[in-house]
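anyone seen this seq b4? input:
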Amino acid sequence: MKKFIIPACLLALNVIFFTACKKTGLSSRNDASADAIALKDQSSSDLVAFKGDELKNNIDKLVEKLHWVEQACFRIDASPYTVYIDPNSVPGNVKADLILITHPHGDHWSAAELDKIVKPGTILIAPAEVVYTGNIAKRIVLKPGDQFNEFEGIKIKAVPAYNVDKTNFHPKGNNWVGYLITIKGVTIYHAGDTERIPEMKTFTTDIALLSLGQTYTFNSVNDAAEAAKDVHAKVAIPMHFGLYEGTVADATSFKTLLNGVIPVVIKEKGQ
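predicted toks r here
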């Protein structure tokens, strides 16, 4: 029987080759794990909860990017997206990526107002009674409790908005809404046309946009101030005054009522 002798140099090469393969396989598995972790982190990045000074800074920045146009209309510059709520008297020079309408009353929406700001990629979220046939990408109907999360970095949740006493204006059964809009960890509450309702104590917000109408919405400026406390707002911004009802003096009273409790920012109309 012949004996085969493997030269030392070949043996050494085999050892190097198999060691390299083993290391490469381990490295590949580690790379794959790292990729999976990165994807997981990326997919959950919008769930990060900011706290302390970082949260305060984010709130302050978003307050600056909230532009009160008129009545209940706000434009939010949520780069790279532009969000409008209840468009009214919009100039039309800034187009919308997302439009939210709380209910179908004429001071909160009209086809003519939407025509100024829509583009082919615009998404419209509104109650079923809002019928718009313009050139938009998608039409969404949300009822209280429903959510919309298709924009990266923006989450929308519809919450109830209705009258308790003046029920002929905004009946609860209509399922008209306010919105919780969360942008990069900061939540804005747009109350829509509502009175102080018990549901306000079931959620929290960072920035509260509250009506000072008194005829169709809250029964008093004090009710609006108490609503800011109900939702644990860190900043409150009054709206829905100076057009058909409510005055600048009401906004000043609102700020006085919350002095030392919740900071109030009174926006200039048309920003």
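The domain at 50-257 is CATH 3.60.15.10 (Metallo-beta-lactamase; Chain A). The longest strand covers residues 154-160. kinda curious what u guys think
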